[in-house]
User: What shape does this take?
Amino acid sequence: GTGCLAERGSVARAQRVAGEGAVKRIRVGLSTCPNDTYAFAALLDGRVECEGIECEFVLDDVEQLNQRLDAGELDASKASFALWLARAQRFALLPVGSALGFGVGPLLLKARTLRTESARGLTLCPGRWTTAALLHRMLLGGEREPEQVRFSDILPRLEQGSAQFGVCIHEARFTWRDHGVDFVLDLGQRWEERTHGPLPLGGVLVRRDLDPDVQQRLARAVASSLALADAQPDLALPTMRLWAQEPDERALWAHVNTYVGPQTRGLDQVGRRALGELARRAAALGQGARPEDLLVVRMDAPPTAPWQTLDSA
Assistant: This one.
């Protein structure tokens, strides 16, 4: 599902913090994935404030967020790293909120029976700008161009036999066994075998031309929200349930445990090296930026030096 939430009481709070007339308003995109709603729960339900910024949260499928961020509809958003590599000149990365897979990633699944001959050899991917689609191109290729569909349509299409393969993301990696399809390959595992590092999937991107002070305040607010979720995970559960595609609570927590880790709480050299590797391999396909062109927001830096390059300490 898609939707919009304004942080409760955020306008009044922002005016108290920033002074009348000084309120900054930004639109922040967020996926409905459990790892994102977990990290942002305290911001969404008003337990954490964003230092004088009124945040309007827009929840949507990650590929829709990629497209809406690219179209200029959002000031910041969780987005696929594949999009960042293609639009590095326009967006910087927050140092918190990223999802990296350690030996895990999108799954290549296979239909057991095909309904039509045209389905043979057809692969479904969850969107042009998803890292899953980029990985499929990098690791598997193939002569036939994949069909891009909404992520939640892939398992049903495989069950119907209207495609032979599907690159599945989000909750599907935890529930595919219930859907009468066969496992072929974990692309995250294949990536790790090839690169000896984790797979960077997505992160919180922010417009480079946004006030640097606003970028840093947003980064600190996300860090605070995530710290609160870690301290009181049960309080994040209602928000996770509200937006989940999958009602099974065990699947929600499996998702959080898989994709919320040390790199989510603060991107360090392990994560930065992995992003550099993804950037180099994407550039070789003509779909990326050089690592030195990728900027990460510095949370506590003076506004005159808001960023550091991906490959700097």
Summary: Residues 212-231 form the longest helix (20 residues). The radius of gyration is 19 Å.
